[in-house]
Structure formats: C-alpha cells, structure tokens
Design brief:
The chain has 13 helices and 14 strands. By secondary structure, the chain is an alpha/beta fold. The strands form three sheets. A seven-stranded mixed sheet has the order 4-10-9-8-7-5-6, with helices on both faces.
C-alpha cells in the first residue's frame, strides 16, 4: 500500500501484474531469499528443497576446478576492471573472444555484459529505419529491443517460426533499400524447442535479410552433430548454428555465459567489420561497466572444463532430462517440449490455482520457476522445470514423485 509520502509519485501498478502481486503474497517461490546451497539443494529459512529453477545447465557454478581458477585472476586483476570496454580491456577479454570464436566456428565475436544489454543496444543499430520481423514467441528482452528500434524509426511486425511462408511474405512486403532484421530464439527458454533454423535462414538469405538468433539457453547445451556425440544435444556445446550445420552467412548469433557457463557475460558472433562498427555504436561497449573479473575467469576455466569433460556433462544432463520427460509423458501431462531439452514447461489444468500448485511443490521439497500471467499467456499458466548436470537421481526421484502427486490431484493439464 502506498504511504502518504509515496502516494504522489509511486507509479500505478499495471492491472496485468495483479496476479504476480497475489502470487508474491501467497507463495514462497517468488522473490525468495536463498539462505544456503548444498549442491543443487537450497535452503529457504529452515526448509530444504531440490532446486529445479536453476539454469546452470552444465553445473559449472559448482565445479571445483572453475572455482579454484577465479582467485588467481582476481589477485592479478582485482575484483572489477572499472573501465568501459571502449577505454580499456583486461587481456582476459581478447583471450575469451579468441577461444569463443574458435569454439563457435564464427567469423568473429564481441563480448558485452548481458544478453539484455545486447538486444536493447544492437537490435536498433542493425534495424535502422528498416523492418524488424519478431517471432511470436521471441524472448521478452528481444521484444524490448524491437520496441526500442521502433521508437527510433523502424517498423516492427510479428511472425510465427512454424509458418515460413508468412516470413517470406513479410520480407517481400518490406520496403526495399532498408535493413530487414528477423529476430527469433534458438533453444526456446520456455518450450525447450528449436525452430527449423535452416529453412528460416534460407528464406532470410533469399530476401537479403539478416537473421538474428538468441541462443542464450542453447549455448553450452546444443552443439555440432557428429558420430561420436554423447547425446542428442550434439558435441562441444557450440550453439544452435553449429547444431544444424548452418553457416554464419546473413546470421548474427547472440548467446550468454550466464546459463551453461554460470558467468555474467554475453556475446555476439558477427563479422569483424560489424564488430568494429558496434565498438563505436553499441552503448554497452561505450558506457557500461564491464563484467567482474570472477566472471571472466570462470569463462576461461569453463572453456577448459568444456573441452575436457563437457560432452560427458551433456550426456548426464540428457540422461536426467530424459528421466523427467519420460515421467511427464507417462502421466499424460501436457508439455510443449517435443524433444529432449532440459527445459520442461508444465501448464496447470484449467481453473487450478497456481498458488496451490506452488504450495504442493514446496511441501514436496521441490523448487521450480512459476510461469504466471502476464509472464505467459493465460492458457499457458503453469511452471517450468530445468535440469542440470549437477542434479542427483535422488533429486529427480523427488521431482518425479511430486509430479505424479500433482497428476493424481488433477492439477496438471493432460494431453487431449
């Protein structure tokens, strides 16, 4: 409630946020304070839960080799290089960019602090006064970048990845002589699915458009396909472009280290000429504070771990994800995940209160990501489970038992 002192300036709450406010008041899975972690278990107050809300897919956040590598770099560089990248770059930056470029098989790479920074700053630069075609399920931060581009003069339209003919029609209708930018996710952060990237990339090339792919959740998990791969995720974790065997022609790949690599850092895979341009046109490079040394150090150490053990970790991640997906499908529950990604969204049955579901999971000792309106459309309200290579079979057993209990209560939406 606003106080008399704040009533004059406190912004009005958007009515669409009323459900988030209610869930924040009635559940313990929003705005939680984590008091302690032990592996992939967390303590909130006196209550221990198996954490299935983490996006640390490879378990690098808990890897002793990576943690030990941080202290040496902090002693060398201090805790934070407080120059903007325009002014100065610890040698860690070019070292990461060189190794990342080689891993991705990309023409060049540019590091910036976060994927959100990239979308808000780079999308308007690439769009100019042209046309932005935004995929219907694109991440909210990409939408925000498109809105910023529109405010600066671009035209924004929506399309659906599963309707490539619609994309081709919109590209044909876009005014010639101006940029045409197509925005979509790689591994979708909610559905766990990937688009038909070769088809969409082919359409973009045919019409002279630039395809801009956000693979924040796929980088580190998906990678190049080859006979000796340890799982259907592919090998090396070098992201969705290599997973499909695609080239970087007319493609910008955006990815983050904050998921699989557990570090505050993000990147673009781009031609060197565009990299030079963004160094003088992208505000995060010009003005933003950089990533902390601990993040830069953990990325470099993560490259070593990925090279030595990454495919084994991806095999374990796939095994654990398959255990949960097999349970979900055996229960007849609905999930948009049609493959084997470690992202499993579970809509609740109509008229089931998400707060009641959260309470059931809490008492079962399971922590998840609640997907409430307006974060998702009303017909997709539910919760999301994320697996990591650091989970144990005991924790997966607990999750599967909780899902079985929810299904028996009629709380999960069933396949029609």
């Amino acid at each position: 409630m606003p106080t008399p002192e704040t009533a004059g300036w406190l912004p009005a709450v958007d009515p669409r946020s009323a459900e988030l406010v209610r869930l924040g008041n009635e559940t313990r899975m929003y705005d939680a304070v984590i008091d302690e972690i032990r592996g992939r278990s967390i303590r909130i107050g006196e209550h221990w839960l198996a954490d299935f809300a983490s996006c640390n897919y490879l378990g690098f956040d808990l890897d002793p080799e990576i943690m030990l590598a941080i202290e040496e770099q902090i002693r060398r560089w201090g805790t934070h290089p407080s120059w903007s990248r325009l002014l100065g770059n610890p040698r860690l930056y070019p070292e990461i960019e060189e190794r990342l470029t080689a891993l991705l098989g990309a023409p060049d790479t540019l590091l910036l602090p976060t994927v959100t920074h990239i979308h808000l700053s780079v999308v308007p630069v690439l769009a100019g006064q042209g046309t932005v075609l935004l995929e219907a399920q694109a991440h909210r931060t990409m939408y925000d970048g498109a809105v910023h581009a529109r405010a600066l003069g671009a035209t924004v339209r929506r399309f659906r990845a599963e309707e490539p003919d619609e994309l081709a029609r919109l590209l044909r209708a876009a005014p010639s002589g101006y940029p045409r930018l197509v925005l979509l996710d790689g591994l979708n952060s909610m559905t766990g699915n990937v688009p038909d990237l070769p088809a969409l990339a082919g359409i973009c090339r045919e019409h002279g458009a630039l395809l801009y792919v956000d693979d924040a959740h796929g980088f580190g998990v998906l990678g190049e396909r080859r006979p000796d791969e340890t799982s259907p995720y592919g090998a090396r974790g070098n992201a969705v472009i290599r997973y499909f065997g695609e080239s970087y022609d007319n493609v910008v790949l955006v990815g983050g280290f904050s998921k699989a690599y557990s570090s505050l850092l993000a990147f673009l895979a781009i031609p060197t000429e565009l990299k030079r341009h963004l160094k003088v046109a992208a505000p995060p490079y010009l003005y933003s504070g950089p990533s902390p040394i601990a993040s830069l150090a953990s990325v470099l150490a993560g490259f070593d771990v990925n090279e030595a053990r990454g495919d084994a970790l991806r095999a374990e991640l796939h095994r654990l994800s398959a255990r949960v997906l097999d349970q979900v499908r055996a229960l007849g529950a609905t999930t948009p995940n049609v493959g084997h990604a470690p992202i499993i969204e579970l809509p609740v049955a109509p008229h089931v209160d998400l707060a009641d579901v959260a309470d059931t999971l809490w008492h079962a000792g399971v922590y998840v990501t609640l997907a409430a309106y307006p974060l998702v459309p009303r017909d997709q309200v539910g919760f999301r489970v994320q697996l990591t290579a650091a989970h144990t079979d005991t924790e997966v057993d607990r999750l599967n038992a909780a899902l079985r209990g929810l299904a028996e209560q009629g709380a999960l939406r069933l396949r029609s």
